[in-house]
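Check my protein:
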Amino acid sequence: MYKLTKKPVIHFKKGLLKISCVTLTALALVSCYSSTTHTNSDAKNTVNTKDNQKQPNILFILADDHRWDLIGKYHSIIKTPTLDQLANQGTVFKNAFVTTPICASSRISILTGLTERTHDFTFSRPKTGKVESANMYPAILKKNGYRSALVGKYEINMSGQHKDRFDYFKPLLHEKTGEFKGKNLPQTYYIAELAKDFIEQSKNTNQPWTMSVNFWNPHALDKDKEDQFHYPPEFENYYSDVTIPPAKLSDNEYFEQLPEFLQLSIGRVRWEYRFSNEAMYQKMVKRHYRAISSVDKAVSMLIQKLEETGMADNTIIIYTGDNGYALNERQLAGKWFGWEEDLRVPLIIYDPRNKQDQAKEITKMVLNIDIAPTILSLAGVDAPQTYQGKSLLPMLNDSDEIQDWRTEFMFEHMYQPKRVFIPPVVGVRTEDWKYFDFHKQNHERLYDLKNDPDETTNLANDPKYQHVLKTLSEKTDLYIKKYEQARTDEVKQRPSFLNQRN
């Protein structure tokens, strides 16, 4: 169906991939807890001796609502050739999760290495505290000689001035297009062009740099209920000759098993204009896939710019999503609730200096709060002791330190808007079990992930599993206490959400 008429020619220029010639027929694919600190010696483990004195550039790419399984390398339909090649040349974390499945909280967790329960930021909450803002990894890197940039989606509110964190700051609201040098571009390409400008400006500075490129895609354009997902025109025919298979758990019975408050939630409201009939489902999922493929093309544009400026060999690329995304599972749309489709994200780390690890896959449980300490350790900069995430560098280096890695984490969603209904939730996921509590609705859920990975059967009311329910409920309370005690004095003094469990 996606037959190549000419095989892709992949060039490796001193370690960085470049796709130079791909021609396709039907669909034309474009040429894509305890905190730890680490010092320079950690980062040097993976680089050649001649590079030991040179700090790497770090390009962090964040897509919005990109769930974990929508990478071409692991998916039978979606096409992401650039991300596939990054995965083939780097490390893929197969079990990456967010601690809060909504953009604002997750993005602050990425920047601060803290859970939402500790940093206390989501929509309608006060800006991040002074300490939390000062400890964001871009601010720390900037103080340690890095140039720092942010381009694209922002939608967060931080204490202090942007210049304390970023030398180059281009925040954007969600639109279909943006004007760049007099030319109207699809917003995904507009973001890429702004990012390329920073790369160009950095090539002769003799300073290492870090940049967050935050694509809005594949997030739906909420004000457009007709088409929702947008992308450059060249992707319009992508997937046009494909029939998208039904989503897991999309039969009526799975929706009917949900409690009434979930049936009335924003997840169902948005389902009505995304997936409520077969034609709409086909249309919207294909548009969502096209939006992801457009991000993949934009990533290839950034890689090409790194090649052109001679910085490819010393630029680490990290790609992930800010949360998962339901595509008709349980006849719901969106994220927020705590199922696997809400929490799991792709995570790829490509380090061109590391010549040994290619197509490496790691199955240990990693979190969005691990990104900040990982970036700092890759730069050879110590992370604050307050970080709740852990550096992934030992995994990249095959260190013995990973023997004591986490086997569980707490997740939650605390935002309670007035304009739509999102029930707050908190819970714990272990390697074998998942517990979550919609505490305002006095509704618990328990899943045996080992025997029921699709989370089809709620065992919370089954007498045989009450000991598991009780253990995980108590563990949730312990995590809440731990993370609230870790708040700074400034955050502790704020009026709190009504997020206390019964």
Notes: The longest strand covers residues 4-13.
